[in-house]
Design brief:
CATH architecture of the domain at 8-175 and 210-217: 4-Layer Sandwich
CATH topology of the domain at 8-175 and 210-217: Metallo-beta-lactamase, Chain A
Bound molecules: zinc ion
Oligomer: single chain
Shape: globular
Mean pLDDT: 96
CATH superfamily of the domain at 8-175 and 210-217: Ribonuclease Z/Hydroxyacylglutathione hydrolase-like
Number of strands: 15
Helix content: 10-25%
Low-confidence stretches: none
Order of helices and strands: EEEEHEHEHEEEEEEHEHEE
Largest sheet: 7 strands, mixed
Length: 255
C-alpha cells in the first residue's frame, strides 16, 4: 500500500483524456471523451479509488459512464456515476448473474497491486446496477458536437463493444485489441466471434487505437496483425477453446 496518485492522466487532445491505473498489473485505461453538451467515460476501472473526482477536474459537462464490457476491471467506478449505459447482452451480469464469485475477484484485485493506503478489501463489491440505456450495434451516443458509434464486438465477452469516434478516426478497443495476452479462453468467450469482431473493427480503418490495458504505444496496424493471426489459427482449426496460448511479437492469445 502507498500514498500518492492512484490515477495517471494523459491528454490526447483538447477534448480527449486517458485515465490510467498503473498501480495495478492490469494497467487499465479509461477514456474521457468530452463534447459540447455531455462527456462520455469509456470504462471506469477497478473502482478502488474515485475516478469521478478526476473526471470533474477535466470537464464541467454531465458525464455518462459506459464500459466496453461488464468485467470487474472495467465497471468498478460505475458506482460514482448517476448514469451508465451497457450492452443488452451483458445486462444480466449487472443484476446477479456475473459468472465469477466475489472472493475470486478480490484475489485478482490485490494480486501484485500497490493499493491506495487505507483501502479496505472487505468493502469491495462487484458493481451491480440498472443501465440508463441499453446499447446495440450501430447506436450513436451524441455528446453535442461529437458523436460516438457503438460497435458490438463479441468474442472476449458476449456484449463487448468498441467505440468509434469518426471525426478523430479514433477506435477504443477495450479488451478486443491490446498489447499483452488477449483472453478468449473463458466459457463466456467465443473465439470465432472474436475473429469476426476484429474484422469488423478493421473495416473502419482507424488511424489511432486506444486499448483497454497496457501499452499506449500501440499502432492501429495491430488490428490487422491480430486479424491475420486469428485467420491463420482458424485455417488450422485451432481457433477454438482449449487450443492453448499462441505468442506473437508483442501480444498473445489464450484460447
Ligand atoms: Zn475483459
Ligand atoms: Zn480488461
Amino acid at each position: 500500500m502507498s500514498d500518492g496518485a492512484w490515477f495517471t492522466i494523459d491528454k490526447v487532445n483538447e477534448s480527449t483524456y486517458i485515465i490510467s491505473e498503473y498501480r495495478h498489473p492490469e494497467e487499465t485505461h479509461c477514456y474521457l471523451l468530452c463534447g459540447s453538451e455531455k462527456a462520455l467515460l469509456i470504462d471506469t476501472g477497478l473502482g478502488i479509488s474515485n475516478i469521478y473526482g478526476e473526471v470533474i477536474k477535466l470537464t464541467d459537462k454531465p458525464v455518462v459512464a459506459v464500459a466496453t464490457h461488464v468485467h470487474w476491471d472495467h465497471i468498478g467506478g460505475h458506482k460514482y456515476f448517476s448514469e451508465f449505459y451497457a450492452h443488452r447482452d451483458e445486462q444480466s451480469w449487472l443484476c446477479g448473474e456475473f459468472p465469477l464469485p466475489r472472493a475470486f475477484i478480490q484475489k485478482m484485485l490485490v494480486n501484485d497491486c500497490d493499493l491506495p493506503s487505507g483501502y479496505n478489501l472487505e468493502e469491495y463489491e462487484l458493481f451491480q446496477g440498472i443501465p440508463g440505456r441499453l446499447l446495440d450495434d450501430g447506436d450513436i451516443i451524441e455528446l453535442g458536437d461529437r458523436s460516438i458509434t457503438v460497435i458490438h464486438t463479441p468474442g472476449h465477452s458476449p456484449g463487448h463493444m468498441c467505440f468509434w469516434d469518426e471525426a478523430n478516426r479514433f477506435m477504443f478497443t477495450g479488451d478486443l485489441i491490446y498489447k499483452g495476452v488477449l483472453y478468449a479462453n473463458y466459457p463466456s468467450t467465443d473465439p470465432q466471434a472474436y475473429l469476426q469482431s476484429v474484422n469488423k473493427v478493421l473495416a473502419y480503418e482507424p488511424t489511432r487505437i486506444f486499448p483497454g490495458h497496457h501499452s499506449l504505444d500501440i499502432s492501429a496496424a495491430l488490428i490487422e496483425q491480430v486479424e491475420i493471426a486469428l485467420q491463420k489459427l482458424d485455417g488450422d482449426n485451432l481457433l477454438c477453446h482449449g487450443s492453448g496460448r499462441f505468442d506473437y511479437e508483442d501480444w498473445s492469445i489464450l484460447l
